[in-house]
């Protein structure tokens, strides 16, 4: 049991404190498990295991407290904690930049570090706009997909979908050309809308920003690599820069290291965070082409890239990211684990489909999602807290997006764990529906 909500001054994200249950107090984590503090009448009574079936908001890749990452961070902590990143550099950041360039296929030659997914996308947008401005052909329009989510800062809210998340702030956002999400069967509508924006604003579209293959916070909506490739080709034909927001999809979530690989192209700007450090420490990265870097490369100081974060390139975060990438390279069969999760999800999807009370069951790599047929669909659906509580009472952390239940486990999850998660979904649905 956690402390009474009235005694904590903490303000939690995406939480309506007036009606939310008390926050669950976590003391430690290991692998796929969170360990919750258990108290009865204020007296400690052991701990409660919870399977982290959403990878703690999609950040944990190899598992909580991976020993290799712990070791790397410990080593780094004894050498260099933090240093200003303007005019100074260090080995973990230099190595990370090389690693990221190599892992994305060498087209992206420069790496700008920041501290979150939102900042990684903000940086990409600012780079895209600056690129056109400094090249002497200013372009001002940004295209994005309806229903996208790119973060909660004003720039990222602007390119995100106009949803309940950001409604209050809409009057303060900048204008963006949103095109319909390419839902299965409706792709032609998306292509037509994209073509129209590209034609209507010829030579004025700076960039197209998108979550490749999988819109996450927008409801775990998936679309195919072919559709992504077509949209990318259409933009390229108009010289529009491609900004891939791989903050959530990156590092294996959709089955490959990066989702864009499945569509067989490398974007002009790629945003990373979440799984970059294996989920161990905060870090953002924006990778860009040499052309974009060169647009800012000038004897004129006013053309430098004006963006910084105090903790950008933090040595501990970089050390964690390098250790995580090393796990991908040699220590463990990460890809096998991802493939096994995808296979288990595919089998579970067939079983879920037999229930009859679920719609739109979809999978992309390690992500399996389904919608509950309820009258009040959407993020604020009343069914969400009931499901959430039921999952937790069964020792499983699943946090539905309204009436959308999704599973996105860390790669160390066992087959037994996955069966428990699928079973928890069935039990919760039986209870709640
Ligand atoms: C696709 C995508 N982009 C950006 C972000 C923002 O990342 P952060 O919460 O680290 O700022 C998120 C967060 O969920 C995301 O899913």
Describe, in plain words, how this protein is organized in 3D.
Strands 4-12-11-10-7-5-6 form a 7-stranded mixed sheet, with helices on both faces. Strands 1-2-3-15 form a 4-stranded mixed sheet. A 3-stranded antiparallel sheet has the order 13-14-16, with helices on one face. It folds into 2 domains: 5-39 and 52-62 and 333-432, Aspartate Aminotransferase, domain 1; 67-331, Type I PLP-dependent aspartate aminotransferase-like (Major domain) (Aspartate Aminotransferase, domain 2), CATH 3.40.640. The model is unreliable at 1-5 (pLDDT under 50). The chain has helices spanning 55-58, 67-77, 91-103, 117-134, 154-159, 187-200, 225-237, 290-296, 315-331, 334-355, 383-393, 415-432; strands spanning 26-30, 33-40, 43-52, 110-114, 141-145, 177-179, 205-210, 214-215, 221-222, 241-245, 269-272, 284-288, 358-364, 367-372, 396-397, 404-407. Strand 8 (214-215) and strand 9 (221-222) form a beta hairpin. It contains 12 helices and 16 strands. With 433 residues, it is α/β, with parallel strands linked by helices. Pyridoxal-5'-phosphate binds next to helix 4.
């Amino acid at each position: 049991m956690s402390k009474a909500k009235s005694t904590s001054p903490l303000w939690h994200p995406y939480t309506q404190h007036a009606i939310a249950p008390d926050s669950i107090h976590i003391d430690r984590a290991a692998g796929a498990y969170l360990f919750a503090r258990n108290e009865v009448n204020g007296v400690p009574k052991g701990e409660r295991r919870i399977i982290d079936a959403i990878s703690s908001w999609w950040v944990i890749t190899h598992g909580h407290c991976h020993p290799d990452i712990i070791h790397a961070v410990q080593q780094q902590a004894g050498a260099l904690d933090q240093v200003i990143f303007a005019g100074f550099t260090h080995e973990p950041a230099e190595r990370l930049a090389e690693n990221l360039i190599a892992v994305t296929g060498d087209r992206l030659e420069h790496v700008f570090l920041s501290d979150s997914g939102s900042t990684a996308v903000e940086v990409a947008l600012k780079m895209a706009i600056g690129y056109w401005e400094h090249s002497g052909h200013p372009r001002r329009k940004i295209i994005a997909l309806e229903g996208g989510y790119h973060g909660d800062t004003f720039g990222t809210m602007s390119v995100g979908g106009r949803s309940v998340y950001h409604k209050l702030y809409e009057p303060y956002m900048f204008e963006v050309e949103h095109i319909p999400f390419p839902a299965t069967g409706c792709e032609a509508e998306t292509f037509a809308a994209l073509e129209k924006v590209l034609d209507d604003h010829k030579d004025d579209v700076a960039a197209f920003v998108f979550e490749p293959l999988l819109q996450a916070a927008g409801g775990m909506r998936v679309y195919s690599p072919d559709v992504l490739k077509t949209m990318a080709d259409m933009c390229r034909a108009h010289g529009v820069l491609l900004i891939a927001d791989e903050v959530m999809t990156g590092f294996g979530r959709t089955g490959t290291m990066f989702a864009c690989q499945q569509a067989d192209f490398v974007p002009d700007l790629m945003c990373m965070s979440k799984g970059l450090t294996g989920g161990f420490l905060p870090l953002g990265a924006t990778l860009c082409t040499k052309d974009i870097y060169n647009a800012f490369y000038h004897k004129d100081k006013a053309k430098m890239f004006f963006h910084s974060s105090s903790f950008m390139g933090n040595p501990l975060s970089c050390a964690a990211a390098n250790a995580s990438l090393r796990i991908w390279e040699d220590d463990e069969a990460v890809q096998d684990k991802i493939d096994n999760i995808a296979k288990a999800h595919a089998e579970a999807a067939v079983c879920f489909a037999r229930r009859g009370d679920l719609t739109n069951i979809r999978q992309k790599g390690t992500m399996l999602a389904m919608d509950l047929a309820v009258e009040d669909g959407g993020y604020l659906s009343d069914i969400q807290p009931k499901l959430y509580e039921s999952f937790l009472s069964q020792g499983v952390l699943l946090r539905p997006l309204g009436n959308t239940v999704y599973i996105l486990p860390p790669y160390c999850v066992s087959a037994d764990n996955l069966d428990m998660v699928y079973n928890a979904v069935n039990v919760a649905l039986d209870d709640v529906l």
